[in-house]
Amino acid sequence: MAKVRKRTWQTKTGEHAAWVADYFSPGPDGKRQRHTRTFTTRREAVAWLAQTTVEIRQGVHCPAHRSPTVIEAGEQWIAQAEADGLERASVRQYAQQLRLHIRPFIGLHKLADLTPATVADFRNVLIGQGRSRVLAGMVVSSLGSILSEAMTRGQVARNVVREQARGDRRRARVEKRHKRQLQVGVDLPTKDELRAMLEHAGRLRPLLVTVIFTGLRSSELRGLTWDDVDLVDRRVLVVRRRADRWNVIGAPKSDAGKREVPLAPIVGSALREWKLACPRVPAGEPSPRARAPAREAARKIKGRGRRTRSNGGRSIG
Q: Is 86 found in the same domain as 163?
């Protein structure tokens, strides 16, 4: 039978008291096992035991001593992402967040010990330690994904990140107020800057023209072949695939990513000129020389994106 009892003890400094939640739950072998958890106040103990009783009735309760730590659950989350075939760049980003932002602060916490207040404090600590609000939000979101994965494994009964997000509407309104629109000249190049880029692009001009007038992502640019470009009849560019930063070919991230992009006359002219000048290779064989300009331009575009993002924006493409 679940109950809350008061525990008292004597030390040299006098009498001390705490409140103990005492309950039973099925163990791995199906037999009932006794568990206890200590709280400072009776109110905390009663509230926690009420929630735990519901979890036991639903068959989702995981006692604290069987609950993994945040870092252990995070490593399982990364392993599952790799097994599910997530993009290498995404898995790398998740692992970096786990190593640099989650492990140092709450890595040793048990999942069963996390509360919505813990999540709020964790976010505040990240910001206080110099992380931007955007990065702190991304890290907390990753923590929520870790908890979701742990729930599917029966390692935790609640996703306190989701609970905290639902209850913190004021912060969402404040962040929405601070969100600003992209500014030309700060987040995006001005027309004069674009003209200067094209004047000095040299062999990269066809690629930069395509970037400017189609808005394709760098990964989509790396995945383009001549079969994706219709320069005669429909004058469109078809996005069918993408290549990550390691040049691994894959499908676009979503169905909406598979699309047809109309080609402006300047793009058609630039691509026709490049088609006549580009190196020839047998069908089906990749050409490192042909991909080199694309990789070089993508790095430059990405580098500009890092500089503009430092001002709170993002780059084109």
A: yes
Residue 159 dihedral angles phi and psi, to the nearest 5°: -105, 90
Q: Give 271-274 contacts, CB < 8 A, sequence gap 24+.
A: 271/206, 271/210, 271/229, 271/231, 272/231, 273/206, 274/206
Nearest to 212 by CA among 264, 154, 156, 151: 264
Calculate the alpha carbon distances from 63 to 84, 111, 134, 212, 267 in Å.
29, 10, 34, 56, 62
The residues, ordered by sequence, that sit 6+ positions from 3 with a Cβ below 8 Å of its Cβ are 21, 22, 23, 49
9: three-class secondary structure by DSSP: strand
Task: State which residues form the domain around 245.
Answer: 191-279+291-303
pLDDT tens per residue across span 239-268:
999 988 888 888 888 888 899 999 999 999
pLDDT of 279 over the 90 cut: no
Residues 6+ apart with CB under 8 A from 198: 205, 208, 209, 212
pTM of the predicted model, to two decimals?
0.69
Residue 233 lies in a domain: yes
pLDDT of residue 283: 60
pLDDT score for 262:
94
CA geometry: angle 151, 154, 157, nearest 5 deg: 55
Does some domain include residue 223? yes
Residue 290 has pLDDT above 60, yes or no: no
Half-sphere exposure of 257 (CA within 13 A, CB side): 14
317 domain residue, yes or no? no
- 299 and 215 both lie in a single domain: yes
Asked whether residue 296 falls in the same domain as residue 269, the answer is: yes
